[in-house]
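It is worth pausing here to work through a concrete case rather than discussing structure prediction in the abstract. The textbook approach is simple: state the sequence, then state the predicted structure, then interpret. We follow exactly that order.
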Amino acid sequence: MLKNHLKIAWRNLKKRPFFTFLNTFGLAIGIAGGILISLYIYEELNFDTMFADADRIHRINLDVKFGGDAVISAEASAPMAAALEQDFPQVEKTVRFRNLGSMLLKKVDAQENVKELQVTYADSTMFDMFGIDLLYGDVKSALTQPNTLVLTKTAAEKHFGLNRAIGQQLVLDNSDTYTVAGIIDDFPRNSFLRDRTVFLSMVGYQDAQEADWGSHNYFTFIKVVEGTNMKEFQAPLQGMFGKYVIPYAQAFYPGITEEQFLASGNYLNYFTMPLTDIHLHSNMQTELSANSSVQNVYILSFIGLFLIVLASVNFMNLSTAHSLKRAKEVGVRKTLGSDKSELIRQFLTESGLITFISLLLAIIIATLALPYFNELAGKSISLPFNNPFAWLILIAATLILGFFSGSYPAFFMSKFRPAQVLKGGGKASIGGAKTRNSLVVFQFAISVFLMISTLVVYQQLNYIQSKDLGFGKDQVLIINDAYAAGNQLDSFKEQVQQLGQVKSVSLSSFLPTPSSRSNHSFFKEGAKDQENTLNMQRWAIDHDYISTMNMELIAGRDFNREFSADSTAIILNESALKVMGVSPQEAIGMRITDGLNEDTPTFFTIIGIVKNFHFESLREDIGALSMLIDRSPESLAIKLEAGNFPEAIAQIESLWEEMAPGQLFDYYFMEESFNNTYQAEQQLGRIFVAFTILSILIACLGLFGLAAFNAERRTKEIGIHKIMGATVSQVTYKLTVDFLKLVGIAILISIPLGWYAMSKWLEDFSYRIAIGWNVFVWASLLVIVISIVTVGYQSIKAAIVNPVKSLRTE
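Step two, the predicted structure:
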C-alpha cells in the first residue's frame, strides 16, 4: 500500500506543477532558515562545554557600590583564589586570568614586532583546571616559572614554526624577555578563551602576589568538588567580605566595621556564575571575552519557529484551497470502498513526499546561504554532514513537519461525503475558507511583527550613531602602540602636528571608545572617611586631549602648558559633581586627593568641569570621571581635517617608518571602534532583515497561490460581472479587497505585540528611542503594498480574460 500511495502521490504532484512548486519552495525556505538558526542556537547553547568538568567550574563575580559608583564585575582581587582554596573544602582548584590586551612581540635578534591582540596572565593551574593538553612542552611545568609563556598553535607558527618554538625567547613591548614553555591547540570558537593567543606566567607578575583586597583585576575561576550545592556555597562566600576585605580596609579607614560600611549605603557582594552560563547570561562592565545574550537566542528561536510554521501554514492553506479539485476523487474512492483512515494515509504520504523533496532543496539552500549567514551573525558554523545524530534529528524533524503540515488537509478532505461531492453540491463549504483566512492572518501578523522589530532595531542603531556623545569621534585617527617609537615618540607627535591635514594630536591610552580603564578612590580635602569617598575613573591625558576630542568645558578651563601648577590640576565630569553634591562653579578651586595611606598626600586642584560624554556603551549611565596630566603613551589620537584621508595616513606612516623603523604601524578610525561596540546589535539587525524578507517571501508565496486559486474558482463569476459592464479595475478591486481585509486584521494584531516585545528589548539601553507611530505606519504600508502586488497580479490576470472563455469554463 505504501508503494501505491507513493505512486499516486507522485502523479498528483506532477499533475499540479504550480501548486507543487509553491508548496515545495515555501517549505524549503522555511526548513533552510530553521537549519541555519538551529546551528546558530546549538553553538550558542554549547559555549565552553568542551572543557573538562565544565559543569563544576564557576566564576567569582563582584557586585559593589562604593564612593557613589556601583559596579557589577567579573573580576575579583588577587588574593581571592588562594583564600578560597584555603578556606573552602568544596573548592578543588582555582585559576586566575589577568587580561593585558594587545602587545608587541618579537624575537630577541629581530627588529620588527608582531602584534598579538589578546595577551593574558594565567596561573599554571589552567591546564589541569580546564583539561587543556599541550601539543609541545611539559604540562606539569608550563607557566610555573617567571618570565615564561605558552603560545597557541597559530601564534607559535606565526613567530617560530610549530616544531621550533619550545625554548625560544620573545621580547614583549620592547622590554621584557619571555621563554616559550609550551604550545597548546587553538581554542574552539565557542570558548571563552577563543581569542587568547599568548599566556604569560602569573608567577612573575608582582601585582598578582600582593594581598590587595581593594583592587579587582583578576578573572577568578573555581572548580568545586562533585555534588557541591552552589546555593549553599553563596553564604560562606559572602563571609569573605568580613574576614578579609574589612581588615584590609581598616588600614585606610581606621575603625571601620562591616556594619558601618553597609549603613553608609555601600555594599560588596560576592556571587558565583557557572562557566557554561557566562556567554549568554553575563553582561558585566568587564568580561574576558565578548558575550552574547540569551535574549538573542530566544529571539532567533522564535524567528526559526515562525519560519517553519509559516511554511507549514502555506501547505495547509494551499492544500485545503485545492481540496475542491480533489473532492470528486475523494467521493469516487469512498464509493469504491476506501475508508477514512486509508484516505488520511494517502494524503499524509503526499505531504511527506513534498516535505522530503523540500528537505533536499533546503539542504542545498542552507549550504549556499551558510557563508552569508556566518557573515551576518559573525559566526564560523558549518553544516554537520558527518554527524549521524544531526541527520537523525533532521529526518525526524522533517517527518514531524510533514505530518504537521499535512494533517489538517488530510483530515479535512477525508470528511467529504461522497453523495454530496459527486453531485457537485456543497461547494461553498468545501475548502475551509474560515480556516484559510485565519492562517493568512497568522502569517502576515508574524511578518508585520518582524518588520516592526527590524525597524525598531535600526532606529535604535541610528539613534546611537547620531546621538551627541559629548566628544567628536569623526575624523579621529588612532595610532596603536605609540610607545613603540621609544624616545622618538614626542618628536613623532610634533612632526605629525605639522602636517597640513592634521588639526590636533593627543597622546593618551584613555579613549572614549573601548580602551584603558582605571578606577580610583578620591577624597575631598580634610575628609578621609568612607562616607566622603568619591570612586571614579582616573584618566591620564596630555594638554591637547580635550581639544582633540572636541569636548566641551562647562566651567573653568583646560590644562595649559604655561601653568606649571597644572601638574597637580584635575578636570572632572558632571557625574563626578553629582556624587560630590556641588555645582560646577562651587567645584572650581576645590582640592581632592587619592593618597589614602600617604603621610603627605598629593592634592589635585579642580580647574575645569567637562560636559558629560559617553565613555561606556549607551547601555550604561555615564559614570564619574577625572582627567589629569600624566604620561600614558599607548595611543596617539590625530584629529584630521576633511580631505584626502589615504594621503594623510600615508604621510603619517612615512614619518612613523622614519622615526620608529621596524615597528608595526597599526591604526584605526575612532568611529570604527565606536561602531564595533554595538556589533551585537548590528548583527541582530542584519539577521532580522534577512529573516523578515524570508518570512514575507513565504507569506507571499502562499498568498500568491491562494489568489490564483480564488481567481480560478470565481472564473464564471468574473465573466458574468464583465458581461454586465464591470471594468478590469472594478473586478481587480473586488478580488483584491478581500485579501487586504485579512492583512488589515493581521496588522491590528501585530502592532501591540511588536510594541511590547521591542519595548522590552530597548530596556537594555540606558539611552534609547521612544517607539514612534511611524514605525507601525511604515511596517503596515510596506506589507499592504507587498500584498497588493502579490494579489493584484493574479487579480488583473483573471480580470482581463475574455468573458466568453470564462463562461465556458468547466
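Step three, interpretation. Residues 426-431 have pLDDT under 50 and may be disordered. The longest strand covers residues 91-107.
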